[in-house]
Amino acid sequence: MLILHGYWLSLAAYRVRVALKLKDVAFEERMHDLSCGHQHESVFRALNPAGAVPALEGGTPEPLTQSLAILEWLEETYPTMPLLPPDAAGRARVRAMFLLTAADAHPLVVPRVQKRLATQFGASEAAGREWAAHWFTEGLAAYEALLSDGATRCHNETLSLADLALASHLIGAERFGIDISTFPRVATVGALLFKLPEFESSHPRHQVGAVAT
Ligand SMILES: N[C@@H](CCC(=O)N[C@@H](CS)C(=O)NCC(=O)O)C(=O)O
């Protein structure tokens, strides 16, 4: 049985949770309370020396880390319900859209960065939230420009890793109080994605330990 090490609020764990469900892979999830610093404990660092979720244990000799690496492994190991297109150009486009969130926006708002902004630069909680909203808004603008008019999915009307990233981005956007109505294509695709049970049931609000934010 695969074990997903996650946290209810983690957008990166969300991306992996959705893929496991879409691919109908059995897993159990263990939550680590990032708000209490559990990611810094030695037992957790043994799973991921970088001190971050997600980590996926049980399918490989060493736990897998980094949502994209985990998702690529899942893709190769459980090819049913493919989440990458068959053509090289399509795969490059999907990975680029995925990285808008996973490489460009999300890393700027994770707890360790927010904490550093506060300790090194004296950023208040409100300033940290504004910072996060800024980077997530930039990401939304990029998705909006890349999506086709009338699109129901990020790429070629077929579910892909890009949709997992966009859905996680939208969860963050909501949390940071961003009005997505100025991004109509993103709003349309997002609304359709969250109608899918795998996307909705994986939402942080339905996870163990969830509290209203
Ligand atoms: N780039 C990583 C992100 C990993 C990451 O930063 N995860 C966050 C939660 S979404 C975390 O565990 N942060 C711990 C911290 O910042 O202290 C991925 O896509 O998996």
Question: What does it look like?
Answer:
The chain has helices spanning 11-22, 42-45, 67-77, 88-105, 111-121, 125-146, 161-175, 184-193, 197-201; strands spanning 2-6, 27-31, 55-57, 64-65. The protein is of the alpha+beta class and 213 residues long. The model has no long low-confidence stretch (mean pLDDT 97). α7 packs across α8 (184-193). 51% of the residues lie in helices and 7% in strands. The relative contact order is 0.15. It folds into 2 domains: 2-81, Glutaredoxin; 88-201, Glutathione S-transferase Yfyf (Class Pi), Chain A, domain 2. Bound molecules: glutathione.
Helix coverage percent of residues?
A: 40-55%
Shape: globular
Total of domains: 2
Give the low-confidence spans: none
Q: Beta-sheet strand percentage?
A: 5-15%
- Give the helices and strands as they follow along the chain: EHEHEEHHHHHHH
State the CATH class of the largest domain. Mainly Alpha
Helix/sheet category: alpha+beta
Q: Taking strands numbered 1, 2, ... along the chain, how are they ordered across the largest sheet?
A: 2-1-3-4
Q: Please tell me the CATH architecture of the largest domain by its name.
A: Up-down Bundle
**Fold-level CATH name of the largest domain:** Glutathione S-transferase Yfyf (Class Pi), Chain A, domain 2
Radius of gyration: 17 Å
Number of strands: 4
Output the number of helix runs: 9
Describe the main β-sheet briefly: 4 strands, mixed
Q: List the ligand species.
A: glutathione
Termini, distance in Å?
Answer: 32 Å
Quaternary assembly: single chain
Q: Compute the average pLDDT.
A: 97
